[in-house]
Amino acid sequence: MAALCSIRIVRKVPDLAENFMGSAAENIKEKHHGVLISVVQLCTELCKASKEALEYLRKHCVEGLVRILRDVTNSSYAPEYDIAGITDPFLHIRVLRLMRTLGQGDADCSEYVNDILAQVATKTESNKNAGNAILYECVETIMSIEATSGLRVLAINILGRFLSNRDNNIRYVALNMLMRAMAVDTQAVQRHRATILECVKDADVSIRKRALELVYLLINDTNVKPLTKELVDYLEVSDEDFKEDLTAKICSIVEKFSEDKLWYLDQMFKVLSLAGNFVKDDVWHALIVLISNASELQGYSVRSLYKALQAYGAQESLVRVAVWCIGEYGEMVVNNINMLDVEEPVTVTESDAVDAVELALKRYSVDVTTRAMCLVALLKLSSRFPPTSERIQEIVVQNKGNTVLELQQRSIEFNSIIQRHQSIKSSLLERMPVLDEASYLMKRAASSQATVSLTKSATTATPAGSLKIPNGVVKPPAAPLPDLLDLNSDDVPVTTSATTTAPDNFLQDLLGIDLTNSSTAGGAPSATTDILMDLLSIGSFPVQNGPPTTSNFITPGQAVTKHAPATPQVMDLLDGLPSSTPLPDENTAYPSITAFQSATLKITFSFKKQPGKPQETTMHVSFTNLTSVALTDFMFQAAVPKFIQLRLDPASSSILPASGNGSVTQSLSVTNNQHGQKPLAMRIRISYKVNGEDRLEQGQISNFPAGL
């Protein structure tokens, strides 16, 4: 009783710890187990409260603790203390925990307790929970003190036996302890690799995830290929809920040990084929960069991807990579160029290659990015395979009336290139230049570090009472919604050094579409980029190649001023037509336009100008719901080029009534600083919820009346 009261006193007033050190050490010699448990716990609290107490108890208690542990381990049957055939497991565990505290960082104390720890580890039976509890504490003590290498191997072997236990809890704590043991004795943990790998296939999701993390730590240069093969084989039969984690780990392993490029490509193609819908964008972006640099493997890559596309066409990331490769290296799959010894020739005609891209275009009718990539690939194939040009033109033209303005614009532009610009088509549609792999990897690493920093900041700022992810795993914040509407990246304030911002945005150029979410490229685009964009714009304003940034969107009540130097009149290099528009009379009446219409929404713009201020326009926007379900949390955002100032007022409501029974209105004001030289242009994004499910629509408005 006195020992229990002393524990409470020490916890409340740690400065009084020195008053209890002597009596606590003396009472270690007690025989009664109840007293011993209380005294051992008091000693543990004293060690936590005072360094002086810790040093004192190391000198005066270790011998007594060893005696207690030897007595209870070797004692005969005692009915008053027996639990499942083990004498007083509670005392066992209390003594082992105190030994762990005393032996941590002290070589002499650790050496003194090594023998008794080995005795407990070998004599305790593991067929009962009480025995397993003692063994677990014994292992944790061994891994925490300055134990000998043989004793650590013994502890890790006990954990290996735990992995074969039928109890999920025991297996889980064993996996946790093995992860800690990796920092102490990797080689001893490697001996249990096969058992750990079997845990990846366990029915319990917690065990699967923890085992997967441990396998990731076990992989090195010598075992990477067999272990990766096991994981990839399991990927095919794994649960859908587990595929995302498994895919991420496999991709990380393959990228980490990618010195053998052929092996890297083979593994990535398998992952794309089996779980392409779970592959992150930055992973397949990196794959494209590597293929661009590996000229000797480009033929092998495009042929492998073509065959995979025929068998696994439902995997989105596989389709994107395959379509890009067919567009760039289509002649290699048709003519079997750069064949490797491990390959067999494939029979693919020019028409077959076009069929593959056309099928992907039709299959992914909802995904804008994939369809845009398909259109770019078809445009390039029209140059690679001239006999198919007419058929490709027919496919491209089918999207001229597409409700997605991005695809509609591309269809019109690409049709113009195929039909009217034969003289420059071949040079315009040459292969992409080799991408700077080192710069891309540097940018990707910088982006990852920024994400980790944000995660740490969010973790630090989390209140004590908030929800935490179990098992010590910190879940990173969800990636921000890609800013699909950005027109200019160079209007974002430059906050990074020239070294960081120098590399071009490879994937924007690579994919030929302005739909990817990538890292910031701070500087203004080069003259060469502007010329290329003018070539592809067919008279429309040039869309910058910089990354989308949410700071370019204007939300209600926010105003942005974007300053730009006066620029000379831009000439469309394909049509020879100036992009400027004639100045209208101030009293001109501007007709209303239907700026955007989908199966869900209709957006109408009307215009009004103030006399004497031709560069300023007030726009009234009306939103109509075409569905039979009300849209909630309705929000409209807009982005404009850098020469335009935009102010967006709040909407009249955040709920859009169903079936056109009423509308939501919103006003916005724009100032065109290059009025008469460049027309108005705008990209819009509308977010809302349907029955609680988030929805997003976006588009580009390029049909403003002349003179705005």
From TrEMBL:
Membrane topology: Peripheral membrane protein
Keyword set, alphabetical order: Cytoplasmic vesicle, Golgi apparatus, Membrane, Protein transport, Transport
Localization in the cell: Cytoplasmic vesicle, Clathrin-coated vesicle membrane; Golgi apparatus
Recorded GO CC terms: AP-1 adaptor complex
Domain of life: Eukaryota
GO biological process entries: intracellular protein transport; vesicle-mediated transport
One matching Pfam family: Alpha_adaptinC2
Domain GAE: 588-705
UniProt similarity note: Belongs to the adaptor complexes large subunit family.
Record's protein name: AP-1 complex subunit gamma
Protein's gene: LOC100842707
